[in-house]
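About this split. The held-out portion is used to measure sequence recovery: a designer receives only the structure tokens and must propose an amino acid at every position. Recovery is the fraction of positions where the proposal matches the reference. Here is one held-out target exactly as it appears in the evaluation file.
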């Protein structure tokens, strides 16, 4: 019977007794990685706050006016689509 050897002499084969490590489980995680992550999150939040201060927020009157325009145009578009669908449905029913 032939003996099976790894193509690389210094590398062991895959055996269930010594599975490959998965991620950082079972290893010591350095605290520097965590502090770096929290620093990145802190920088992100500071950037968001900085950008939000530059936003030009509408007044209540502008907001109310824009909302009314959107609602009126939505109703007009809904009526147009309803009437178009009704007309095309009747045309198709006449043809068939």
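Reference sequence for scoring:
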């Amino acid at each position: 019977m032939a003996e099976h050897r790894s193509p690389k002499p210094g590398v062991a084969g895959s055996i269930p007794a010594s599975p490959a490590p998965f991620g950082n489980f079972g290893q010591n995680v350095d605290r520097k990685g965590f502090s770096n992550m929290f620093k990145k999150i802190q920088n992100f939040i500071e950037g968001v706050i900085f950008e939000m201060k530059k936003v030009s927020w509408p007044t209540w009157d502008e907001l109310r006016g824009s909302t009314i325009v959107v609602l009126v145009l939505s109703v007009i578009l809904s009526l147009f689509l309803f009437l178009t669908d009704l007309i095309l449905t009747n045309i198709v029913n006449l043809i068939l």
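Annotator remark: DSSP finds two helices and no strands in the chain.
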